[in-house]
Write a structure and sequence with these properties.
Shape: globular
Strand content: 25-35%
CATH class of the largest domain: Alpha Beta
Strand order of the largest sheet: 3-2-1-6-5-4
CATH architecture of the largest domain: 4-Layer Sandwich
CATH topology of the largest domain: Phosphatase 2c, domain 1
Length: 561
């Protein structure tokens, strides 16, 4: 057997891994967006950002892991393919691990049902391979060169995020050290604008600078020798008693443990609460705690600014709700000659009414009708603005005569340019499905941008899954969008939906595309009206998920009359 221990235990590599501060850290959107996007583009059940230590692999981000691995977010190396990527520093592409002599005995094959694996090394500029960005399938699979190239592109982006994180962590540590030194020096300068006072081990004031005396309303002579906790910190912000045993300032003076509190109150001489943030640093001499130095700031203006921000956020929320209501105007079932239409939208939680999912239906020249279902990343005003921008830009492009694929390409470049010129959040992309239907001939042209494939339920039985391809718009400029043309016979039903339905979850089990297709088939076979059929699909997803969807959901049903 090949010895894989040396690279995994290389002290320099392990030190570089520790410097990222990513091991055992919480999930973050900055990494999750790459695993989500890889899963959509590659149609891979599992995608991981895996960091490999000397005895385990930790998943900084994951999509599709089964329980309990998804909760634990790590496995021992006995269940790791990514260790081989770290060992070689090269991509590892495997169609069927059971037939690979290097991997066939790995316990991930038997215990986790791993079959196909494509892993790209995450190697820093210093040459340290920290782990792997990988896609996994539970069925044998021949990875195409295009899929490997996509995975490599996204792995480069993940590595960039890691290296930016390392740089930011180093800068933060330097800033923290600089702040500590500044606080210590400030304790010696009574002219500082910060309030500063010193205490002995018993909490009695040993000095107080003019700024602290002015903010607290105590002349220095009146504060010296007094118990500072009883003088200015005896009550909590709500007015209840604050025992000295619970006070972090008092603990710092006794135990030598520093503390920082960003939102508290001191009580002025006139009995008025003074909002403050403070840090308490112990005074030490040869390892013995002599007391503490407390530096504090009046945060009254900051509290006012925070209240103003909350008020502004509330205004933005109201604007976003108004904008989204305008975007999600109900479609009328018989509005378009020769077609019946029903739309349905629901946020993940009723109290969070502002989401990024949307639908649209509008007439084009020549008796054609355009249908759009999309999902803008994020929530709130930003998502609502991007939704409106996409909706009305598509209307303009299609009414100018652009084909569906050309309209998506133009929209993609428009959003990429807006993101660059307006410094928008880099995670501000949109997935959507576009269909243009000629009601008279039944000709339908579909284009998708990273969305769930459209589903056609045939009136005579059976169904077709539309195979149009394309990445989300607003992510990378100058991308192709492959259309697919199909004929709709009378009575055929088209379903366009966002992934809030397919990702309805019961424990670790997802409803999935097949589950949505089954719900749609039952609804189509019933005698229900089209709006009732749409509602039945939503109700089925809710029932599967125990009554709560974990993402916004949106769908359009179109039937040729």
């Amino acid at each position: 057997m090949t010895d894989f221990t040396q690279p995994l235990t290389d002290p320099e590599r392990l030190s570089a891994l520790d410097d990222t501060d990513l091991l055992d850290s919480a999930p973050e959107p900055a990494f999750d967006r790459f695993t989500r996007l890889a899963g959509k583009l590659l149609h891979a059940p599992v995608v991981l950002v895996s960091l490999v230590t000397k005895n385990r692999q930790f998943f900084k981000s994951s999509v599709g892991l089964p329980h309990p691995v998804a909760s634990v977010r790590e496995t021992p190396l006995s269940h790791s393919f990514c260790q081989h990527v770290v060992q070689s520093g090269q991509p590892l592409i495997v169609a069927d691990a059971r037939e690979d002599p290097q991997l066939c005995e790995n316990l991930a094959v038997a215990d986790l049902n791993v079959r196909a694996y494509a892993g790209i090394p995450l190697t820093t500029a210093d040459g340290h391979t920290l782990g792997s960005f990988c896609a996994i399938d539970m069925q044998p699979r021949a990875w195409t060169p295009e899929e490997v190239a996509t995975l490599e592109t996204l792995a480069d982006a993940v590595l960039t995020e890691i290296e930016l994180r390392v740089a930011a962590t180093r800068a933060e540590r330097q800033a923290q050290e600089a702040e500590r030194e500044r606080r210590e020096k400030a304790a010696l300068l009574e002219s500082t604008a910060e309030g500063i006072y010193g205490m002995d081990r018993d909490g009695r004031c040993t000095f107080i600078n003019p700024a602290a005396a002015r903010m607290l309303g105590y002349p220095p002579a009146e504060a010296l020798g007094r118990d500072m906790h009883q003088l200015i910190h005896r009550h909590r912000p709500d007015g209840s008693a604050y025992p000295a045993s619970d006070c972090p300032i008092s603990r710092a003076a006794r135990s030598g443990l520093a503390c920082r509190v960003e939102d508290d109150v001191f009580w002025r001489r006139d009995g008025v609460a003074l909002p403050v943030d403070y840090c308490s640093s112990p005074l030490m001499d040869d390892g013995v705690t002599l007391g503490a130095v407390v530096a504090f700031s009046d945060i009254t203006e900051r509290k006012r600014a925070e209240a103003a921000v909350r008020a502004s956020w509330e205004r933005d929320r109201r604007v976003a709700e108004t904008l989204q209501r305008a975007i999600l105007q109900d479609v009328v079932e018989d509005r378009f000659a020769g077609l019946s239409v029903a739309g349905c939208y629901q946020p993940a939680w009723q109290e969070a009414r502002i989401g990024g999912d949307f639908f649209d239906a509008f007439a084009l020249d020549g008796g054609k009708v355009a249908f759009v279902v999309g999902d803008a990343s994020g929530k709130g005003l930003g998502a609502a603005v991007r939704t409106a921008e996409a909706k009305f830009a598509l209307r303009a492009f299609l009414r100018e005569g652009a084909a569906p694929d050309a309209a998506l390409a133009r929209l993609n470049n428009l959003l990429c340019a807006a993101q660059r010129l307006e410094a928008r959040d880099e995670d501000a992309f949109i997935v959507l499905t576009l269909a243009v239907v000629d009601a008279a001939t039944g000709q339908a042209i579909f284009s998708t941008a990273g969305a769930e494939p459209p589903l056609i339920l045939r009136a005579h039985g059976g169904h077709d899954i539309v195979q149009a391809k394309g990445i989300p718009v607003g992510f990378l400029a100058d991308q192709p969008y492959t259309p697919q043309a199909l004929r709709l016979d009378r009575g055929d039903l088209v379903l366009l939906a966002t992934d809030g339905i397919t990702e309805a979850r019961r424990g670790s089990e997802f409803l999935g595309y097949d589950g949505m297709a089954e719900l749609a088939g039952r609804a189509a076979a019933s005698s229900a009206s089209l709006p009732e059929a749409a509602r039945a699909i939503f109700d089925g997803a809710h029932a599967f998920a125990g009554g709560v969807l974990h993402d916004d959901a949106c769908l359009l049903l179109i039937r040729r009359a």
